[in-house]
Amino acid sequence: MVPYYFVRTQEKVEIALLDMFNNIVVNKYNDITRTSYSQTIRVPIVINQEKNFANWFRNVEEKKRTMPIPIGGLRFVSKEPNNENRTQSTYARQIFSKATERWIQDIQPTPYRLTYELEFLTDNLSDYHQITENIVPYFNTSRALRIKEFDFAPDIERKIIVYLAGTTETFEDELEAGSKHRFFKPKFTFRLDVDWYRPFEIPEMIKYAQMNFQIDDFMHSQQIFVYPDPIAQTEKKAWEQLSDTTRTGYSLLKTFSRSLVKETNIDGTVTWENITAPDAVRPVGVPSFNLLHLDFDNDTSHEVDRSGFGRDFVALNDNNRTFISPLEPGNGQDTPDGYKVDPTVKWNKILDWFGTNNGLNESPFTFQSILQFKNSPVPDTIFQYLLNDETTTDTGVVIPQGEVFFDWGLIDSKLYFTFKTYGSDSLFYTFTTKNKLDLNNMDIYKFVFVLYDSGNAGTFGYTINNGTMIALETMRT
Amino acid sequence: MATITLSVSYNLRDSATELHNFGVGANVSRGLWDNRDKGILERSEKHQINVPEWSQQPNTGLSTYFRRHNGFKDQERHNRVSRNFTLRQGTFVKYYATSFDPMSDPLYHEDNNREVQRYFDVPMILTFQPENEIYNRFGIQHLDEFEVHVHMSLFMELQFASLRRAGILPACDPNEHNPIWSQRGYEGFRYYGYSAQQIFPKAGDLMKIEAFDTLYEIESVKDAAPDHQHRWRKYWWKLFLKDAMDNGKKVSTDVLNDPEQEGFINDLLGAQSGSGLVDPLGNSIKWPFDASCTVDQLKKDVLFRPPEVDKSVTDISGDNNFYPCYDKFGKW
Lengths: 477, 332
Description:
Shape of chain B: elongated
Distance between the termini of chain A: 54 Å
Number of strands of chain B: 12
Mean pLDDT of chain B: 77
Largest sheet of chain B: 6 strands, antiparallel, barrel
Radius of gyration of chain A: 33 Å
Number of helices of chain A: 5
Mean pLDDT of chain A: 72
Shape of chain A: elongated
Number of helices of chain B: 9
Strand content of chain A: 35-45%
Oligomer: heterodimer
Low-confidence stretches of chain A: 202-206, 278-342
Distance between the termini of chain B: 108 Å
Strand content of chain B: 15-25%
Low-confidence stretches of chain B: 21-26, 326-332
Structural class of chain B: alpha+beta
Largest sheet of chain A: 6 strands, mixed
Radius of gyration of chain B: 29 Å
Structural class of chain A: mainly beta
């Protein structure tokens, strides 16, 4: 079993349900037209489930307190599985919480149907009619409770349907000799559709450590997160590593944090300069960072397909776990130091990735190239490029040839990425790393470029032989 | 100057009036002795008490079997013996008389505006049984079901005095006095002008028994007690009691301030207006098992605040825009 877990699912439902019937009042009318009354009495409401909860009361009170009447009592009756509303076993839902500015991914909820009885005690017909008239017309035949789905995301609403399944009346009004109170007892039976959750953890750090490794003049910092295994698997980014922990069921998620370079000044003092791009490891302000992965894998004659999918382009939509239909811009025409586009490329798709017709880039992208240089790398080379032919969009706008493109590669031994969009808000930027890279033809490199902030920001990173991802300080020109 | 001191004394006691009794410790109230203008009943009463039926008759040698028997004498004697037994052996009870006007609601004939109007003490003959309680329904529920016997004449004497003290006028002519209602019907009943409705014990009246700090309510009144009847006359009411409920009765200031009742009822009715208790969340507890205040507190963390409900609203679900189907009822 998982650790102790209590989020008060049913308790919250009961609080909301009690609130629905809280603060009912009855008037003590003193005329036949029911227009004037001597007083207004609040109808208290209790939960009448326990058998011995009154003991303390008897022990602390000097005299027995009179029970107020009319009074309402809520009683939990039963629960049964709500199978017709059960989700698929692979169900996963992602919701964005604006209040907390993060994505929440839940797992399969457990739908149940709870049954409650709400019974009132009244001792006269006037109170009886007032109470029932305050309740019955509002259920035709259902109403909805509105509660917070999760404590940690107050802006996500869960509507709980409350069905008025039936009413029962009991009249104990026979005026026979004996010690019986005169009661009119309306009883309402409610059925509530409720979702329960087994323990799940939102992808947030529950334990954290930062480790600094000094190698010669470099200080590499590594952040280590502790996650439950299933979450660690889903949270792991391509450049991060997982390793075991001493506790079963948890993994260490290791990610690169920063790199410092040692600088010795003339006076002998030592300072460390941070050569890490700020927030490079986990770019901030990219809430849907995981939404769409584009894995570009460049097959050359000397490089195997590393995508695992047998295709050159892989686009993964995390929302529905489906792959975008095959796009094959690689393996094309001869281009010096680079690749050319296959004639079958559907440029509309490219435009879709790069935003709408106004040219803004609405979705963040991750571009990735895994390659090994055949010869010693030249300072200037192109990994990939795409550009459009003359295209007429669905709205009739004609985009001239070459107006929408991207290409990336090496320039002056620095990584660069250039793209251009078309429209009223068209963007045309080139991103480069600040420092030159020392590359060779022995290692396999994985270059990653993340484009985010509507296309206005980007970050480079790379790994060597599937090692730790190194974030690179990136400049936009 | 010479001073003469005159020592004057006088016996302030009432002139000695002979108050006969017949030897069981019973007293005859002064009023009955002094009231000379009543009918044969009262006069024969006095005679009967002074010359009891069972006193030794002169042995005349004649059989008295065929003597016409005066049943009224037996009835009155029984009445006085049982009345005085109650005074001597009864349990002290605080009695709270309530108003009751079933004609105030001509449709249902309910009186939902009853008031505890008067308070007086009355001894009663109690049955005793251990207290039983049950906790599984609407909090604490007492199963105490007392049955008490109230002596009619004694109760009406004390009720009469209480009515007079409270200044409540009799509903009929004060000269009408016809208290043997069991033989003459409700309509003809008068107690110095007070009607049965005014002076009888009735369902809804409250009482506190001396030994128990519990407020009981009369659920029903019964006069059919054959075991306790004597010569076709009834002497006892049997009251069926149950623990009282706080059902909206109001308490008059006369009762609240009456020192004799020692404030017993003062915080037992109208508890919805406050009990002086405070729950762990700091709310004033109206009634200890009432969850209303707690729910009002807890719902702040539970309920979803839809955008339609303004952020300044503290009572979220009290806002008209909270329930999504509100417009189904209010705006069509």
